[in-house]
Fold:
Amino acid sequence: MYKGAAMKLDPVLSISHTPIRVRFCETDLMGIVHHANYLAYFEEGRVDWLRKRDLTYADWAHRGVHLPVVEAHTRYRSPLTFDDVVEIETRLSELRSHSMRYEYRAMKGGVLLAEASTRLACVDPKHQLQKIPADLVKQLVRGETAPVKKV
Amino acid sequence: MYKGAAMKLDPVLSISHTPIRVRFCETDLMGIVHHANYLAYFEEGRVDWLRKRDLTYADWAHRGVHLPVVEAHTRYRSPLTFDDVVEIETRLSELRSHSMRYEYRAMKGGVLLAEASTRLACVDPKHQLQKIPADLVKQLVRGETAPVKKV
Amino acid sequence: MYKGAAMKLDPVLSISHTPIRVRFCETDLMGIVHHANYLAYFEEGRVDWLRKRDLTYADWAHRGVHLPVVEAHTRYRSPLTFDDVVEIETRLSELRSHSMRYEYRAMKGGVLLAEASTRLACVDPKHQLQKIPADLVKQLVRGETAPVKKV
Amino acid sequence: MYKGAAMKLDPVLSISHTPIRVRFCETDLMGIVHHANYLAYFEEGRVDWLRKRDLTYADWAHRGVHLPVVEAHTRYRSPLTFDDVVEIETRLSELRSHSMRYEYRAMKGGVLLAEASTRLACVDPKHQLQKIPADLVKQLVRGETAPVKKV
Structure:
């Protein structure tokens, strides 16, 4: 999974931001967002990060390329509550031949609420490690494409 | 979906019971179980109901038979709270050529907390309606098989 | 819960629309959105409906007014898949002294994928039925307020 | 949060095991359990670990003692699929004056599928760090109490 050297990444091109509004059902009886839901937020950030580079899950899956999360690490600093709008900052922080790593920051009003990282392995439909295809690598490092109409 | 007459069902053979303990993450900021989670409980009840008749999702899927929920109706009477053990009573209440209906009661200490029903359509892998295969119908109506070792 | 006659509602003022993008974690092994997640979508629609009338959960809770879902009914017509943007049409369809009913339509590209309704009871912090306060009723029937800056 | 030295813990007394059956709704379109759900499994393991030492969330909350997760780390090795029975091994691995750390192993048929750790801070109802009360510490280190009737 750690095969090959890490590519050099442009820190500016590697970042995207995604606002997410906390749902009622994501809170727990402590009145705050349950910690497991942050992984859903970070995933939404990552999917949006890819979309902003014209990459979709369908593209990858169509070519037999899958990117399961093989490691996740989250530090929770301050709680999120219902109806908060949290901004997820998603950054590709490491790109290797067979895996990639994203880092995330959950911010509200400029305050850091949580930070996290996930490692994704590039596997084929039989869950065997494979190289990330070269053209996909290009799309991963080029930064956001022209902004598209927000839905 | 309502094709064909409903089969006559033996009310005793049609019932199974499944205890479920409420998870922390299933509560919301009102301090009670969020209403959407009941559908997960009823589904767990239904899966257990099938297992107790030697039917597994794998059996059905292997034969290209899928049973998506096409309708769900729940009445919430009294709240469930964290760590409660709720007993789900699952009953096959209607069996037709292309669909089936289950009814559920969520009980705690003999008190009815919620009641529900779901209709499931029998479809093929392309989401087209198909008849429920005859041998599966037999397994659906015969009642629980000998108890198996609890995990 | 059905106390009192239903108020007459203006159908135009009673509707709001909320776009929601399907998350990866909301799909199941059938490749489609799991049926329980629709209740989260409808809740998000309802919360947005209230926000567009300057009503927030915090307002209600602060006054000891809670609105638990006491009944939910969903018909699933066509599946939703990952990354779909579904438009939730939320409509207040019944307003009584102690309860209210919302109806929902989940649409994609003009196609109706699911329709649903939920009944909400107005209760105090001890889960006892209470009248919906008169000024809140006014806010419920007046329609959307001036559009606010989208986050 | 790391205040004070870590207590010496008896490795045998510090472990409990909890079997969990994977729910249909916990899978995703890749056909495997979505990675966020493991945090729910580990939480269920931890709640069960506490229950086996006669400790319940209600006990703690009643005394104004809360234990939010402040850090979580998971390594996913092999996927879990629908209907699998996964055994969660929960171990108290670090006990300090104001925080504790649990480690988890998700096993199936003797095979390690995932391993994880979570750090929990001891806070008061205002989310301020506080010492774990001495009598609760005693209950945390003494091992499982006599087995209770399984529900």
Q: What stands out?
A: Chain C touches chain A at residues 19, 21, 23-25, 39-40, 43-44, 47, 56-58, 82-83, 85, 151 (CB under 8 Å). The two ends of chain C are 36 Å apart (CA to CA). Chain C has one domain: 15-141.
